[in-house]
Amino acid sequence: MRRSLWRFGHPVLGVVLLVLLAFGTGTLTGNVLAAPEHGPSDTHAPGALVQPGRRVLVFGDSLVTQSEPYLTVVARALDMRARARASGGIAPCDALEPLAHEVRTSRPSIVVLAFSGNSLSDCMRGGDGQLLQGAAVVAKYRSDTEAAIRIATHAGIPMVLASPPTSQQSGAAWEALDAAYRDLAAANQPQVQYTDAGVQIAPDGHFVAEQRCLPFELSFAATRAMCAGDAGSIRVRSPDGVHFCSDPSSAKSAATSCSTYSSGALRYAIALVTAARLQLDYLSSFTR
To answer: Which residue, of 94, 98, 133, 284, has the greatest Cβ tally within 10 A?
Structure first.
């Protein structure tokens, strides 16, 4: 079984879900998990190691754009602020210039890179002008991720490399990309860490369309019906086998955001923000 490089272990997801349950009077409406106006106070917020207002900046592709509505509420539950710079189809090479700009101007507390293997951008073309394929894609991702690491760490900003949930078609390509992220994180610790962001969606790199309902999904009116079957499961992937929007009436499974609640998008947001939270906690332990 694959393991995260985190010494803390990844079942922190359970802790995050308990935090979300603290917003129990909120509602699941469309693509947003809405918290009540008067949530937990800062003085009683979980995770005393995390100072209020720490900012996580997430760079990524369409998987991040579909998770973006949930990033904010998950970050708020963990006493953080989240912002995404993501667009469908992009790759790490597209993020290098925006990352350098953000490092100079907004100075985020931590950066998360969450790219899933696209080769559609002009910066993913080889010397022959053709879009890279196969092993060349992973090699390009590796070199561009190394460049992103240098940009962030030279500015004193830590980073998380998030391996995506495998798609229905990716197979060996996901294995190679996952290995590259693991290698780069191991070579740049402690400033850079790896996390398997698909652990609650496609664990150990195995694609599935459905997962067991999370505890709070059994309670919210908007999701209770989805979990009512004998298996107690809920869709976490789109019909295309890649994205998260599970509403069969959606015209585009690669839509910027999902028209209805998406368990897969929420799980991905939880994984990304939790990893950032763990990295900040870990690094802060060196300064206490």
So the answer is: 94
Structural domains in the chain, sorted by start = 50-199+260-284 (3.40.50.1110)
Q: Which amino acid is at 17?
A: L
Q: Which residues contact 155 (CB under 8 A, 6 or more apart)?
A: 103, 104, 107
On whether the CB atoms of residues 159 and 148 are closer than 8 A, the answer is yes
On whether the CB atoms of residues 195 and 6 are closer than 8 A, the answer is: yes
Query: 193: helix, coil or strand?
Result: strand
pTM to 2 decimals? 0.86
Dihedral of CA atoms 269, 270, 273, 276 in degrees, nearest 10, equals -130
Q: What is the DSSP letter of 123?
A: G
- Listed in order, strand segments (DSSP E) in 101-236 are 110-114, 159-163, 192-196, 210-212, 233-235
CA–CA distance from 75 to each of 40, 52, 86 (Å)?
13, 10, 17
pLDDT in tens, 128-169: 999 999 999 999 999 999 999 999 999 999 999 999 999 998
| pLDDT tens profile 85-142 | 999 999 999 999 999 999 999 999 999 999 999 999 999 999 999 999 999 999 999 9
Query: What are 41's two structure tokens?
Result: 């106070």
Nearest to 12 by CA among 109, 77, 61, 57: 77
Q: Which amino acid is at 59?
A: F
DSSP 32: E
User: What are φ and ψ of residue 199, in 5° steps?
Assistant: -60, -30
HSE-up of residue 207 (Cα within 13 Å, Cβ side): 17
State the Cα angle at 85 between 83 and 88, rounded to 5°. 130
Token pair 């004998």 is found at 230
